[in-house]
Amino acid sequence: MSIDAKTVAELRRRTGLPMMKCKEALEAAGADLTLAEENLRKEGHKTIDKLKDREMKEGLVFIAESKGATAAVAVLCETDFVARSADVQQFGEMLAKGVLASAPSDQGAGDALHGLKLEDGRTVSAHLEDLVGKRIRENMKIGSFARFKPQPGGYVGLYVHHNRKIACLVDLEGKDVAASAAAKDLAKDIGMQIAFHSQLLALEPKELDAAWVAKEREIFLAQVQDMPEAKRAQIAEGKLAKRLKEVVLLDQPFLKDEKMSVKQRVEAVAKGAGTTLRVRRFARVGAGA
Which pTM value belongs to this model? Predict the structure, then answer.
């Protein structure tokens, strides 16, 4: 059966698949363009099933900003080559805009975004199905996301690591924070701090899960069982205090001056600017990092 080049080209435009694959599909479908596309989509589903267990160690974060609000979302895949491909770049940029405009929550895992409709009217799930099944032929998913909108007078700072694999959002609030250059510099510095500490769990100690703290205490007590009984609890508590500094942002030594904590640095900047200032929340969005 003779299949004209125009029809093959149209099927390629719709599917993104190689010309030869499109020609074969049209021949199998008796030159029926719609049927050929449906059959290729079915094959795409099979491709997704075959790929779903492959590990995704690469990816990039995508950013969208508007009127002081910022969104960051991670797109994960198997190779850096695919992460930087035109198809994934276009999808990631559209996805970030969608998160900024209408994400179901301010922070979360990528699964929560599957039903989100993007600017072209298609859902995130439909885009992933198309990309994985017909275009990139790699396993792919959405990682974490965050969307922060500043409080009145507040400021949302953004730090993006040079490799575009980590983005950190810092939500500052206080009096005239948005107009303070010192506060904006602080937000960037804290964002950098967050980027280098992947184990962060909370802004301050009271936000930590009590069960998690109890388990950490139990572990440290087990580690000191060979020490004199009178000193065990004291040493274990010292180990726990050190561990908490690793996971609580405000208690960490400030990256640019470890003689002070992040909390003390915030207080110093506020005093120097003659304003009130506090970190309201933070987020770390990572792709393969």
Answer: 0.79
